[in-house]
Amino acid sequence: MEITDREVFEIAMNAEIRAREAYEKLASAVTSDIMRDELLFLAGEEDKHRRIIEKMSESFVGSRTEAKKVNISSVGEFKVVAEKMGEVIKKPDLNIDEVYEIAMEAELISERLYRELAGYAATEKTRIILEMLADMERNHHSILRKQYDYIIRYPELYKEEFYDQLMKDINFNF
Questions:
Q1: pLDDT, tens digit (0-9, with 9 covering 90-100), for 37-55
Q2: I need a surface site. Which of 2, 93, 146, 172 has the fewest CB within 10 A?
Q3: How far is CA 1 from CA 15, 63, 73, 75, 123, in A?
Q4: DSSP states of 33-92
Q5: In terms of residue numbers, what domain contains 84?
Q6: What does the pLDDT look like over 135-158, one tens digit per residue?
């Protein structure tokens, strides 16, 4: 595949848009206020990332306009996990465990995508920003992992009404 800096930015923006949409759909499907808030926070973060990438794209116009051969394996992985997420969200009996597992996988793939894209950046500034975005995606994974671990550890508790109050009382949520 051959790619220009502009195309690198387009790939990254599309990945952020898909992630935001997935979190918004998940947020509308969960009953826990804590989980909903966390998922909406992540959706907002993905939208911020999209805006950052959009600004990068505008400020680096002309950095490298000739195409460069690249091999970005995580693009295919991201498409697969996005399809999995779409299928899971459409199920009438939404499995929260499965949703979190797929969301965590998507964050790790997004991290790899940005690290790979950073390797093809035409400028040092572009590379640094893409690496920072990769670090942020890793942080998103950590947020999801924290909640998922509690869901797995206490499967019945998180379904009960007092779960949200408990999480608020112990200030567990970020």
A1: 888 999 999 999 999 888 8
A2: 93
A3: 18, 19, 11, 12, 20
A4: HHHHHHHHHHHHHHHHHHHHHHHHHHHTTTS--S-EE---HHHHHHHHHHHHHHHHHH-S
A5: 2-169
A6: 999 999 999 998 888 778 877 766
At residue 119, the 3 state secondary structure works out as coil
**Residue tagged 């909903």 (tokens):** 36
- By the 10 Å C-beta count (0-12 exposed, 13-18 middle, 19+ buried), 15 is classed as buried
Rounded Cα distance, 152 and 154, in Å: 6
CATH number at residue 12: 1.20.1260.10
Q: Tell me, yes or no, if the pTM score tops 0.85.
A: no
Number of domains observed in the structure of the chain? 1
The gap from C-alpha 168 to its chain's centroid, in whole angstroms, comes to: 24
Per residue, the 3-state secondary structure of 47-62, as one string, reads HHHHHHHHHHHHHCCC
Q: Which residue has the tokens 């929260």?
A: 96
Cα 16 to its chain centre, rounded Å, is 7
Give the span between the Cα atoms of 33 and 31, in whole angstroms. 6
Q: Has residue 15 been placed in a domain?
A: yes
Among 154, 164, 149, 165, smallest CA distance to 32 is for 164
